[in-house]
Amino acid sequence: MFNELIKWLISALTSAVFLGAVAYFMRSILTKFIGKSVEHRFDKKIEKFKAEIRDSEKELEQIREFMGSTRRERDSTLQTKRFEAAETLMRSRQFLGQFSMLVEYLKLLNLEEITKNRNDPKITQFIKALTDPFGIDEKLKIYGTFDRTMTELYLNERVKKLFDTYQFIILNAVMIMKVLSMPGLQINPDLFKKDSLKNMVIELTPLSKDGFEQFGDGYAYHWTNYFYDEILKELRNELLGISSMSNDTEAATKLALDSRTAKVKLQESLAANGLSDQLINSNAK
């Protein structure tokens, strides 16, 4: 009986050891199998993820290229429009420049003396002789056909203000000279007030304020050449990124030449009409 029990125990232990060994090896095999399976699936997911990233990068690159191309096309179109607007503004500036001599006349004329003797036909003829060569009516009609839509849309505020001020100075001078050349026309004293023009000049050139206080509203006419030159400088700066150095010597030479020419023509016209040089400002004689 005891021997049978011993045999049974040995058999049971042997079976247990065998089963344990089998279980151990099976677990090891299963662990490796499961591990490889998981690793394989993980690798596939990693590759898929990498592929998705590459696709996304390609898509982003395409988007960046498209946006860059669109931006370049937009910037190119905008720059083209700016150049067209600048050309339009320059044509207007050049056209108005034909009247610059009228501004020089007003800088020299004694308007108080002229308006006081408005009924003298010699004075009317004197002013008419100065204005007739300019063909004011015809040229203003032509100027009225100029389209400035492009300049309003595509140029910066400073260059537009510079041009508006220059235009205001020129047209103010043209209007005054035209009115003075028309016999029998009643002149409103407010015609010679230039508050709006003075404010426009001071806004762009604050240092001019002292000059207006010293010389009056007519001081605005002395800034004509400044605005004429500054328009071109600002356009160059906006379109080409170039801050032009002002050629003060050249500007001063041109201004002096225009002033001398205007003074000579005034003196000749006064002599031709038998008028006194009292019609010229005392500080311009």
Describe this entry's structure for a reader:
By secondary structure, the protein is an all-alpha fold. The chain contains eleven helices and no strands. The chain has helices at about 1-95, 100-110, 110-115, 120-130, 135-145, 150-155, 155-180, 195-205, 210-215, 225-240, 250-270. It is rod-shaped, with a radius of gyration of 45 Å. The protein starts with a helix and ends in a 13-residue tail after the last helix.
Structure described in brief:
By secondary structure, the chain is an all-alpha fold. It is built from eleven helices and no strands.
Key structural traits:
285 residues; mainly alpha
Kindly provide the radius of gyration, computed on alpha-carbon positions and rounded to a whole number of angstroms.
45 Å
Strand runs, count:
0
Number of helices: 11
Structural class: mainly alpha
